Structures are given as structure tokens and as C-alpha cells.
């Protein structure tokens, strides 16, 4: 392929920068790569060379790829797609493709009938089988005779990105707040030396596929919880959210100072990284309005993150005679639970708890109903509960329980 006919698609095997900025307050810190990434030269579709952008679009639009979503350019000739997600069927799959995403050479994956593997071109089966057995290796098990290049890409906005906590510690040599993105072994070694003071060796990291995000809270009293709670794509950036929560109303606070820290591993990307701090009280939601007379008569759970959607929901729920409560959607969001028709005034339902868990914001709902011998007003009611919580882009999951009065 001639040099003139080439297009340079920037991949995420970027050169390496150790970026840091202060960790105080609620304002986000945006980290940008400061060195150019390694390029993957690709050519015209009719030249037999994959155009990487076509495969990126395919992977971004995948419906079941929240756990893994990886592309590899092999020998500048093939593209391997490895993806997995939390789906009842077709929960994982690998596809080896040629010059276009439609040129499927081999595929493997989950199905209703169980795992299946097939190749339209049997000459590629040995190559495909080797890659399937070595998905965790940088060279996919192909050895020095082949060139394997990971293709980093950011999923479409709003998509969660899988992450793994690799270090958590309450005592760090880094005593001031810091948020750091690490993309190579030298930067990781320097940061670890500062953190551990040679107490223990640094965990090994494959920086050909992975980058790290580290959060140091600095000197802090022992009276709260702290963790990374969400990673996802948001408006062309990789968003990392961590929550610091005050537990002093319910915890016995020790007279000690710690330096909490977390390090997570995420897919290596050539994209800006925004790190957002969420500061929460022990009771981390406030009620806008509880009522048994909502004008919304169907069961519904909603999450509202903008003013226009909030105005529409409020008008539907409360009618035009009640003024719209003001919400700062740059820092907050609204969670609404509407429980539908209930047969008596003893029936109700509302938000009982809001907590981060497993990369999701889990909202507990408690429905109440009368026990034996309880006198109730016999009328149809429509319970609803609207609460304000700290804004997060994490997926929201509702969990319902029933309590008898």
C-alpha cells in the first residue's frame, strides 16, 4: 500500500504521562495525554487492509459488551473483536474479520444452544483457536512472527467501562490529595515508590492494554468511606467517579489520621480522563416531595439529570398549580419512584436507601402494606417519592422490598 493512500488512525497505545492535580472540592479534574499515541496505518477497504474506524463504530454500538470490548489489529490484515457483557444470551463472543467488519472469517460465542465456534475460512481456524486460548496475552499467543496491536477506543457516551481495583490502602506516603493517570511502567514505579516507601513491591501491570487511575485523599480522619464507584464514557471523555461519604452520625470515629488511596485498572485509551469527586453525607438523599396523591397513576421509576426533563416530570406529577422546585443539575439529580394505584391509605412506597454498589447506584424502594387488624381508609391512593441525590453518571438500579406495618 502506498504511503499516499494511508490514513493514520490514532490508537490508544499512547506514550506515557503521569498527570496529577489536586483532589479537593467538587469540581472535576480533567487529565489529558501529553504525548502522542502510537498510530495504526490503515488503508482503503478495496486494498484489503482494515479501516480501523469501521470496527470501532461496530464495537461502540454493541449491545452486550459492558464487561469486555476489545479490538486487535493483527498483522495489519485481520481484526479480532473480543467482547462480553451481562446478557442472558450471547453474553460473550469473539470474531475474526478481514478487510471489513462484514468479512467474518471465524466466530465463537455463547448461544441458547451453548458455546459455538465456526469458521467460513478453515485456513484461519488454527490462528483463531490460538487467539481464543490466549486472549489475556499481549501477543494473543501468536508469538514474534505476528504483529498484534490493541486498538483503543472510547465507547459511546453513557456506556459504563469495566474497571478493576488493583490496590486499596488506608496508609500512604502521599499525604496530600492527588488524582493521577498512569500509562507506563516508569511512571507507575515512581508513583509506587512515593506511596509505599518500599514497604511492598508494586503490582505488575500490562501497560500495552491497561492504564491506571489512582486517587489519594491525603491526610484524613478515620470517619468515612471512600471508593471508586463508576467508570464510563461521557461526552468524549473517560469519566471516573469516586465517592467520599461521611459516616460520623453512625460510626465510632477513631482519633487517628489515615491516607486512603485507591488504584483501578481500565482499558488503555487515548482520550481525556475526567476524575470527579462525589461528597456524600451519611443520609445521602433529600426528599423533594412524598405523596400518596401523585397524578402519575402508573408504576414507574425515573432518573432525571436535566432541567427540561425535570419540568416535564413535575408538571405530570404535580400539575401546573405547584411551582417547580429548583435543582442544580450540575451537581445534583432527581430520583423518582411512582408506585401506581394502591387500595388503601395504609399502603405506601418510597425510597429507603441510595448506595453505590458494583459500579451502579442502587436505589432501595420499600413498599408498605397493612398487617392484620390495622384500620385503614379504603380509597385508592397513588404513592410517590421524589428525592435529590448527588449527581452521578453511573447506571441506576432499583431494588424493591415490601414491609408490613
List keywords for this structure.
mainly beta, 6-stranded antiparallel β-sheet, 5-stranded antiparallel β-sheet, globular, disordered N terminus
Query: What is the helical fraction, as a range of percent?
Result: 10-25%
The tally of helices reads 4
What structural class results from the helix and strand content?
Answer: mainly beta
How many strands, what sense, and barrel or not for the largest sheet?
A: 6 strands, antiparallel
What is the chain-wise order of helices and strands? EEEEHEEEEEHEEEHEEEEEEEEEHEEEEE
Q: Which range does the strand content fall in?
A: 35-45%
Number of domains: 3
Sheet with the most strands: spatial strand order? 9-8-7-6-5-10
> What's the alpha carbon Rg, rounded to whole Å?
25 Å
Envelope shape: globular
Poorly predicted runs are 1-46
| Distance N to C terminus | 76 Å
The number of E-state strands comes to 26
Mean pLDDT: 86
What does this structure look like?
The protein is mainly beta. The chain is 10% helix and 43% strand. The strands form seven sheets. It has a six-stranded antiparallel beta sheet, with helices on both faces. The termini are far apart. The relative contact order is 0.12.
TL;DR of this structure?
Helix content is 10%, strand content 43%.
SSE arrangement:
Layout: E1 7-14, E2 19-21, E3 29-31, E4 37-42, H1 52-60, E5 68-74, E6 78-84, E7 92-97, E8 104-109, E9 116-119, H2 125-133, E10 148-151, E11 164-169, E12 178-182, H3 185-196, E13 210-216, E14 220-222, E15 224-234, E16 237-246, E17 254-258, E18 261-267, E19 273-280, E20 285-291, E21 299-304, H4 307-318, E22 332-339, E23 348-357, E24 360-369, E25 384-390, E26 396-404
Amino acid at each position: 500500500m502506498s504511503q499516499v493512500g494511508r490514513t493514520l488512525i490514532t490508537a490508544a497505545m499512547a506514550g506515557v504521562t503521569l498527570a496529577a492535580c489536586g483532589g479537593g472540592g467538587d469540581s472535576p479534574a480533567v487529565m489529558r495525554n501529553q504525548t502522542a499515541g502510537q498510530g495504526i496505518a490503515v488503508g482503503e477497504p478495496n486494498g484489503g487492509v482494515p479501516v480501523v474506524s469501521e470496527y470501532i463504530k461496530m464495537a461502540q454500538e454493541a449491545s452486550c459488551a459492558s464487561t469486555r470490548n476489545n479490538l486487535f489489529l493483527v498483522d495489519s490484515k485481520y481484526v479480532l473483536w473480543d467482547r462480553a457483557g451481562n446478557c442472558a444470551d450471547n453474553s460473550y463472543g469473539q470474531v475474526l474479520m478481514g478487510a471489513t467488519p462484514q468479512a467474518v472469517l471465524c466466530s465463537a460465542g455463547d448461544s441458547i444452544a451453548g458455546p459455538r465456534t465456526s469458521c467460513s475460512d478453515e485456513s484461519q481456524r488454527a490462528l483463531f483457536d490460538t487467539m481464543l486460548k490466549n486472549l489475556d496475552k499481549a501477543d494473543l499467543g501468536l508469538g514474534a512472527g505476528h504483529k498484534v496491536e490493541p486498538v483503543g477506543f472510547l465507547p459511546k457516551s453513557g456506556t459504563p467501562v469495566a474497571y478493576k481495583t488493583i490496590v486499596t490502602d488506608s496508609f500512604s506516603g502521599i499525604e496530600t490529595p492527588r488524582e493521577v493517570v498512569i500509562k507506563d511502567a516508569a511512571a507507575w514505579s515512581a508513583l509506587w515508590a512515593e506511596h509505599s516507601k518500599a514497604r511492598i513491591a508494586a503490582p505488575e501491570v500490562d501497560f500495552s492494554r491497561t492504564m491506571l487511575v489512582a486517587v489519594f485523599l491525603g491526610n484524613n480522619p478515620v470517619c468515612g468511606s471512600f471508593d471508586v464507584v463508576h467508570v464510563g464514557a461521557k461526552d468524549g471523555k473517560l469519566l471516573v467517579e469516586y465517592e467520599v461519604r461521611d459516616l460520623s452520625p453512625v460510626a465510632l470515629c477513631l482519633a487517628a489520621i489515615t491516607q486512603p488511596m485507591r488504584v483501578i485498572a481500565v482499558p488503555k485509551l487515548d482520550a481525556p480522563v475526567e476524575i470527579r469527586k462525589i461528597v456524600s453525607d451519611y443520609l445521602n438523599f433529600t426528599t423533594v416531595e412524598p405523596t400518596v396523591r401523585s397524578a402519575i397513576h402508573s408504576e414507574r421509576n425515573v432518573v432525571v439529570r436535566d432541567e427540561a426533563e425535570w419540568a416535564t416530570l413535575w408538571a405530570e406529577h404535580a400539575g401546573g398549580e405547584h411551582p417547580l422546585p429548583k435543582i442544580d443539575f450540575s451537581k445534583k439529580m432527581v430520583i423518582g419512584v411512582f408506585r401506581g394505584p394502591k387500595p388503601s391509605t395504609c399502603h405506601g412506597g418510597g425510597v429507603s436507601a441510595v448506595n453505590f454498589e458494583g459500579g451502579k447506584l442502587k436505589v432501595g424502594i420499600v413498599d408498605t402494606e397493612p398487617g392484620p387488624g390495622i384500620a385503614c381508609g379504603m380509597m385508592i391512593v397513588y404513592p410517590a417519592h421524589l428525592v435529590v441525590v448527588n449527581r452521578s453518571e453511573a447506571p441506576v438500579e432499583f431494588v424493591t422490598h415490601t414491609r408490613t406495618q
